[in-house]
Design brief:
The complex is a heterodimer of chains A (about 775) and B (about 200). Chain A has about 775 residues and is α+β, with helices and mostly antiparallel strands. Helices cover about 65% and strands about 10% of the residues of chain A. Chain A is built from 29 helices and twelve strands. In chain A, the strands form three sheets. Chain A has a five-stranded antiparallel beta sheet with strand order 3-4-5-2-6, sandwiched between helices. In chain A, helix 7 crosses helix 21 (about 530-545), helix 13 (about 310-325) packs parallel to helix 15 and helix 26 (about 655-675) packs across helix 29. Chain A is elongated, with a radius of gyration of 35 Å. In chain B, strands 6-5-4-3-2-1-11-10-9-8-7 form an eleven-stranded antiparallel beta sheet, sandwiched between helices. The longest helix of chain B has 16 residues, at about 15-30. Classes of the chains: A alpha+beta (about 775), B alpha+beta (about 200).
Chain lengths: ~775, ~200
């Protein structure tokens, strides 16, 4: 009696909690929508090595999300400028801000003027040390009598030293203000640069798509209006919107195929709306819990998780099937049936959850989220079946033609032809060996996601035209003080200057371009103090009628410029981007590289790393992580099989191999099939094998637990078919990771199922 | 509603008198001046530099060749040649190069060249892109005052050009308070450069 109450209480609790969660979900639809994320950077694994590098990458990705650049190119500048006007007027409704131009030039000069003696170009240092006073006198005169004007008055910079320093700095950017526009020239083509500030306007995927769609439409219509105009886009928003659309298409296609297949299967087998209703209820509850678990555990729910999550349909239908087929022509009471099914279903849940747990152990945020999604979903559907199904009285079915059909499948088939059986076993072993030795591994970041080629291409062109440094390959210099870091950095930039002259890179961005090291500033100061200049200054002062205080001022050695001197300027934003001082005892800076030219450049650059200068190569690092985890997972799978074998052995003793061998063989045969299909084996395939360990052993466990129950054989076959459809449709995904994962499981599950039945004990045998 | 307000604003903008005037002005000046390929002339320049009591007066000659650039040769009180070409800007005297800005390191040189060419050869289209303009045309000639469109990063506060068939006077005022006055005489189109003149561009 007590037992009975407990069951009812459990069922009621599940119902009430679920109903509560449904209400909460409907009430918070907006909040939920805003937390779905399609940020492509979220696919990147967390770095295990350098927190500064990680911080830098996150700064880059944050800035990348919030800005976009559109270039309008033409061989006639006027056309490009006119197209810009048209384009801007078309995107007016988006209310995007163009980032304010840096108007702080004069403010910047004011600060630099306090450090005149410290800021001298290497060329001028050489001239100060080597040219006669006559030269400097003439140069000062020439500047005084020259045409037009300069940003710094002659009185403040009579020899044009600071002017040269500023010119050198300004030369670092190719973008020029041109009237109201920004222009950059690349050979015969002039590009008008339209930077766009997306800031807070991209709260959700929906908003992101609106922005991207509008910009794309404006580009299209402007291109039609102006001849010979070429638009180039760069920005996370374009790629993210494109991938999220692809993922959404995937979700609806995969979801539709899985759901339709499930409904058709259930409908034709059980011929009951109650059966269909029960399955729909289970799948819905599974999705609700799966989604909410991710929602509450993770700050963002990735769109890719949802795409992957559609495979949950197949998994959760499985548990329904065990129950539903179990109730065909069944005379047991529902609670007795539950007692009967519980051991098999419990082991099945345990092994499947274990497979997904391995997925959670990776450093890839999106993969661990997929694991949480799947585990929560299958646990919820498992609980639904076991707690609620016993109380749905209409879930009783009689056998019909359709559900009798699979009864012709016999466990341990071909047992009457021992020779044929042995032949098949030998063939299985041979194919497995081929699979084990022939597969081609691929640990490439591109195996995780692929992006629209046109967009990636445009992005690359924009980076080249605007000299945008690489966000994934750079140096991090670390030291205990600002001056130490600056001097180390300057040492590195000297080496980089060498690589520029040999063509390995085309440029770099370094904080020392703005704030030279103390040593470099001292060198400048001593040149500033040279006799050549002193003598010339005396003559210039006399010639121009300048007073003695001016002469004294122009000889003064000023204090060195430091990074904090610039902290009030907009330019500091750019510097602080490269500068890390959150830790009071450590200072670090990133040195960014422009125009890295292939693998040979990477080799040259990586040679420059020392103890304090770290070469960061993100793609390489990711490939290494992929490789490491692929290897690690292979070992984990082996350990997993041993553990599973142990658990199963406790219950089924010497028959245990019949449950464990099918997925093992299936793994190797799948390797062979994928190799034959030309599919490389990446981390995701190996993770799929880990999952196969969980799902594939289920079939064997059920056959061992219920050896003479033909309905169980029937239900695992339908379950396998359902899972096959689920993962088969996942293999249609445009995301390489999901495609590879789906394809691997498709073959893996098919062979596991086939082999589980083949290797099962024949019901007729007496041993 | 918002659309119709925008439309009205657009109509107002088009009807705004100063806008029409400016457009009209540049067209009028364009019609007045010659814009030959090569121009030669003499100049007298007076500079008043902020914080310098001495008035710096100099004279010399200049060449503007639309295909090559500008050479500005000061002959008195000191000899120096300022060269603005696509390749860069340089200042030199008879013996030394005193200062250079290479356009390969400093892309803005190309624009400085273009703008100077536009000012000296009266290319109104180029000027229009970068400057806002006001001024007037009388029977005696025309006055054009240019201010940079983006004033906050502008080095030049204003440029005032007066002329008739050719440019006769320019005043540059910088933000720092330096004023450069240039009077032109003998400004004439020429058909080709002499050997000596060509060498000045090199």
């Amino acid at each position: 009696m007590k037992y009975h109450y407990f069951n009812k209480a459990a069922a009621l609790t599940l119902l009430l909690v679920t109903a509560g969660l449904v209400c909460w979900t409907f009430a918070n639809m907006n909040l939920i929508g805003s937390r779905i994320d399609n940020n492509i950077f979220s696919l990147l694994p967390k770095s295990e090595r350098n927190s500064v590098a990680e911080e830098f990458v996150s700064r880059v990705s944050k800035a990348g999300e919030q800005s976009a650049v559109v270039l309008i190119g033409s061989d006639i500048l006027d056309n490009a400028l006119a197209a810009e006007k048209e384009f801007r007027s078309q995107i007016k409704s988006l209310d995007l801000k163009s980032p304010a131009l840096d108007n702080s030039l004069f403010q910047y000069i004011d600060i630099l003027q306090k450090h005149t003696s410290q800021l001298i170009t290497p060329d001028d240092i050489f001239l100060l040390n080597n040219q006669s006073p006559d030269f400097w006198y003439e140069r000062s005169n020439a500047l005084a009598y020259s045409l037009g004007g300069s940003a710094i008055s002659w009185r403040e910079d009579p020899f044009g030293l600071l002017g040269d320093w500023l010119n050198r700095l300004a030369g670092a950017t190719k973008i020029l203000p041109y009237g109201d526009s920004l222009v950059v020239n690349q050979g015969p083509i002039s590009y008008v640069v339209v930077p766009l500030d997306l800031d807070a306007s991209l709260g959700s995927i929906h908003e992101q798509n609106i922005v991207a769609d509008n910009i794309n439409a404006a580009i299209e219509s402007t291109t039609l209006k102006f001849q010979g105009i070429k638009f180039l886009r760069s920005g996370v928003v374009f790629i993210a919107s494109d991938t999220s659309k692809a993922a959404q298409k995937d979700i609806s296609a995969i979801g539709l195929i899985s759901a339709m297949a499930a409904l058709i299967l259930i409908g034709s087998i059980f011929r009951s709306f109650y059966a269909i209703g029960a399955v729909l209820l289970t799948v819905s509850i599974a999705f609700l819990y799966a989604f909410l678990a991710c929602f509450f555990i993770f700050p963002k729910v990735y769109l890719l998780t949802l795409a992957f999550g559609t495979s949950l349909i197949g998994m959760s239908v499985d548990y329904c099937l065990y129950w539903l087929t179990g109730s065909i022509d069944d005379v047991k009471s529902p609670l007795a049936r539950r007692r009967y099914l519980f051991p098999g279903m419990f082991l099945a849940l345990l092994t499947t959850a274990m497979g997904y747990l391995l997925l959670a152990a990776t450093p890839f945020p999106v993969l661990s989220q997929m694991a949480v999604f799947s585990i929560s979903g299958i646990v919820a559907s498992w609980l639904t079946v076991l707690c609620l199904f016993p109380y749905i009285s209409k879930l009783r079915f009689v056998s019909n033609k359709t559900n009798s059909m699979p009864l012709c499948i016999r466990p341990g088939f071909l047992s009457e032809y021992p020779f044929l059986r042995w032949l098949l076993i030998v063939a299985t072993i041979l194919i497995s060996i081929y699979g084990a030795y022939s597969f081609r591994a691929k640990d490439d970041i591109r195996s995780l996601a692929s992006f629209n080629k046109t967009l990636v291409n445009e992005q690359l062109q924009v980076s080249k035209i605007l000299d945008i440094p690489s966000p994934s390959q750079f140096f991090i210099v670390t030291g205990s003080s600002e001056s130490q870091v600056l001097s180390l950095t300057e040492g590195l930039t000297k080496e980089l200057d060498g690589l520029i002259s040999t063509g390995y890179i085309s440029g770099y961005q370094s904080v020392t371009q703005y704030v030279p090291s103390i040593a470099a500033q001292e060198l400048a100061a001593s040149a500033y103090d040279s006799l050549n200049k002193k003598v010339a200054l005396k003559r210039v002062a006399k010639e121009m009628g300048m007073d003695s205080s001016w002469e004294k001022n122009q000889s003064l050695i000023s204090a060195p410029l430091t990074i904090s001197d610039l902290s009030t300027l907009p330019i500091y934003k750019k510097l602080s981007y490269l500068w890390f001082d959150s830790d009071p005892t450590i200072r670090s800076t990133a040195i960014l590289l422009i125009g890295i030219d292939g693998q040979s450049s990477v080799e040259q650059l990586s040679k420059l790393s020392t103890q304090d200068i770290m070469w960061i190569d993100k793609p390489q690092e990711i490939s290494e992580i992929f490789h490491r985890y692929r290897t690690l997972f292979s070992y984990i799978i082996v350990a997993g099989y041993l553990l599973t074998l142990f658990i199963i052995y406790l219950k089924y003793k010497e028959d245990s191999w019949r449950a464990v061998m099918p997925p093992i063989f299936a793994t190797f045969i799948t390797l062979a099939v994928l190799t034959a299909l030309g599919e490389p084996i990446g981390l995701l395939s190996v993770i799929a094998f880990a999952l196969l360990l969980g799902v594939g052993t289920d079939y064997g466990i059920f056959l061992l637990q219920y050896p003479r129950d033909r309905k169980i054989l029937f239900s695992i076959s339908i379950a396998a078919l359902m899972t096959l459809i689920s993962f088969g449709s996942l293999s249609l995904s445009s995301v390489p990771a999901l495609h590879g994962f789906g394809l691997t499981l498709f073959f893996g599950i098919f062979f596991s199922w086939l082999l589980a039945i083949f290797l099962a004990r024949s019901p007729d045998s007496n041993d | 509603m918002i659309r119709s307000i925008q439309k009205m604003l657009a109509v107002l903008l088009v009807l705004c008198p100063s806008y029409v005037f400016a457009d009209h002005l540049l067209d009028q000046i364009k019609a007045l001046i010659n814009s030959p390929q090569i121009v030669r002339g003499n100049f007298t320049q007076t500079r008043t530099l902020m914080g310098v009591s001495k008035k710096l007066t100099s004279d010399g000659f200049f060449l503007v060749d639309k295909s090559k650039g500008i050479v500005w040769v000061t002959e008195r009180p000191i000899y120096q040649a300022l060269k603005i070409t696509d390749a860069g800007i340089s200042i030199g005297n008879k013996t030394n190069t005193l200062m250079t800005i290479d356009s390969s390191n400093q892309p803005s040189v190309k624009y400085i060249n273009e703008l100077m060419l536009a000012m000296f050869s009266g290319d109104m289209n180029s000027l229009e892109r970068v400057f806002n303009s006001t001024g007037e045309v009388t029977t005696k000639g025309w006055v054009l005052e240019l201010t940079q469109k983006n004033p906050s990063s502008a080095i030049l506060k204003s440029v005032v050009i007066t002329g008739n068939l050719a440019i006769s006077h320019i005043t540059f005022s910088t933000k720092e308070g330096d004023i450069t006055d240039i009077n032109f005489t003998n400004v004439k189109p020429i058909t080709s450069l002499t050997k000596d003149e060509i060498s000045l561009f090199q």
